């Protein structure tokens, strides 16, 4: 049975399931930010555990396929080395899980912070959607909105 599960979850299938699996979390953050489901399942450690498990699974599959992990450190040497790493589906999948995990974490922080500052959920929906799609731009837009509600700028908060 484990062999069947392992054979089923190729990189392409895992990419599909990660993208499909992350959508309910984001839809809940956008449309139901104050629900208990959001509080206990979306803005908690639960999605990070799921995405971390998939990350470990990809690392395990890469290890079994004799992936050269040492070459990953070459990405810091030049942009062409980074480009070469992105030709590997394994590295691309690791990067993608990393990206969606951080974006979801930031989305959860935006929701919790906006509730603390009493920012309306419709106003927060815009930076959430942009954070889902473009990460840093969404959090920048949220910070611009946040400045008006917090009435101060704290660089360390």
Structural class: mainly alpha
Percent of residues in helices: over 70%
The major β-sheet equals:
none
Number of domains: 1
3D structure, described in words:
With 157 residues, the protein is mainly alpha-helical. The chain has one domain (2-150). It has eight helices and no strands. It has helices at residues 2-8, 11-31, 36-42, 46-64, 79-85, 89-116, 121-134, 136-150. Helix 2 (11-31) runs antiparallel to helix 7 (121-134), helix 6 (89-116) runs parallel beside helix 8 and helix 7 (121-134) packs antiparallel against helix 8. The longest helix has 28 residues, at 89-116. It is globular and about 55 Å long.
A few lines on this structure:
By secondary structure, the chain is an all-alpha fold. 75% of the residues lie in helices and 0% in strands.
Break the fold down into its secondary structure elements and pairings:
Blueprint: H1 2-8, H2 11-31, H3 36-42, H4 46-64, H5 79-85, H6 89-116, H7 121-134, H8 136-150
């Amino acid at each position: 049975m484990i062999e069947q599960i392992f054979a089923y979850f190729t990189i392409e299938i895992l990419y599909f399931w990660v993208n499909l699996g992350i959508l309910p979390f984001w839809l809940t953050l956008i449309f139901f930010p104050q629900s208990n489901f959001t509080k206990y399942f979306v803005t908690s450690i639960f999605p990070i555990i799921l995405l971390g498990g998939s990350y470990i699974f990809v690392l395990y599959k890469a290890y079994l396929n004799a992936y050269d992990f040492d070459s990953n450190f070459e990405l810091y040497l030049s942009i062409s080395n980074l480009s070469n790493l992105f030709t590997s589906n394994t590295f691309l999948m690791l990067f993608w899980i990393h990206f969606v995990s951080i974006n979801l974490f930031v989305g959860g922080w935006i929701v919790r912070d906006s509730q603390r500052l009493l920012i309306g959920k419709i106003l927060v929906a815009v930076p959430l959607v942009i954070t889902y799609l473009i990460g840093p731009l969404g959090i920048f837009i949220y910070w611009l909105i946040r400045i008006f509600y917090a009435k101060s700028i704290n660089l360390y908060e």
